[in-house]
Amino acid sequence: MQRTTMWLAGMVMAAMPALGFAQAKEVTTTQSIRIKGSAEEVWTYVGDFGGLAKWFPSAESSRLVLKSRSEEGAIRELLRRNGTRVTEKLTEYDPTNMRITYTYADGAVMASDYFATIQVTDVGNGETEVVWSGRFTRLAYWQDPPPAGQDDDSLRTFFTNAYKAGLGALKAAVEAP
């Protein structure tokens, strides 16, 4: 009996990928922009984790709900212009190297295992490069094929467009007279 149970368990485990239980691959995107302004000036926007709505176009409002300043472990609540709400946790705050990394904590998330990094770098001649990169998996990682609009390419396109729009708005905010 035990031998039959072990054989049956082995067959079920072997069939899992075919049944759609395979792990989804990690999806990535990276966008960058050059901004006329000092890295320190750009960092005043990027490094203000609770102040995202000051420059990110799809953010209606944002505020820190855990901790009172930008530091590792801080949590921000973001209300998007489409009415959805999400909380994000700051997992790395490095003002010396002008880099933040954050992840979803709760709410109307768009991806699973989401980690995004924004890096600010002085490139000389009064210009700064900002690189926004993300890595994530789709929410319906156990379904293959996933539901319409939740496939890897749709998710990559969503974040690519969000990062592009955000970087463009950041450039406009910094370069405004």
Helicity range = 25-40%
Largest sheet: 7 strands, antiparallel
Taking all residues together, what is the mean pLDDT? 90
Low-confidence stretches: 11-20
Topology record:
Blueprint: H1 2-15, E1 27-36, H2 39-46, E2 59-66, E3 75-80, E4 85-94, E5 99-107, E6 112-124, E7 127-137, H3 152-175
Antiparallel strand pairs: 1-7, 2-3, 3-4, 4-5, 5-6, 6-7
What's the gist of this structure?
This protein has 177 residues and is α+β, with helices and mostly antiparallel strands. The chain contains 3 helices and 7 strands; from the N terminus they run αβαββββββα.
Describe this structure in words.
The structure is a single chain. By secondary structure, this protein is α+β, with helices and mostly antiparallel strands. The chain is built from 3 helices and 7 strands; from the N terminus they run αβαββββββα. Strands 1-7-6-5-4-3-2 form a 7-stranded antiparallel beta sheet. The longest helix is centred in the C-terminal third of the chain and has 24 residues, at 152-175. It is globular, with a radius of gyration of 20 Å. The N and C termini lie far apart (79 Å). Residues 11-20 have low confidence and may be disordered.
